[in-house]
């Protein structure tokens, strides 16, 4: 019965004059427009953001004429990550809001390790990128990245997430790390932990054990099998064409040697913050 009611409502909406239909659906979102069976290019043009980046060759299959509709183009861009020309970044559109999303690969990040103990691993299947980085050991680890504000959707709340996996025999990842996100002179800092299982771990002088009061942000498992940890959130103002969003994840230097083996980082993802 509910499905029949939805179909009836969609038919009623489809009978509205196009100008009114465009105005009404543009105030909702792409998902609502799909439910309303709206195929008008005028409607879906409202959901396609301006300033879409150029994609790597063959990321989108060529369509025979006539060119695909605006709705078809939106659905292609929101179906999953698409590589940019140098294949160090990927982008896609958020299906709820139509906002631009990105992931910076590990190769696009700045990595600081006082012992230079990391290696690049070839990867296929679970990532759009050909390589990820694995940290082996070190005193202090720092991962930094940045993205121009103009590449993101304006007047949008975003969050940055580091995407990673932790090996079963990892060590030195259960202490407190520091995550920072900054844009336009404003900066937020929080305490995070990459591995809350405390397996095989011990603490040296100068390290902070993770408190159990909820003050430290913990990782979440993703549908693709990776883990993600929110580094922070920020608001991207419309018209901010000169600024950059900078983010970092730092493991403070411990009092003694501590192994960080088993941390594999795919990249940093920037997507709209879900309230």
From TrEMBL:
It holds the Pfam family PP2. It comes from the Eukaryota. This is F-box domain-containing protein. Transmembrane segments: none annotated. InterPro entries: F-box-like_dom_sf, PP2-like.
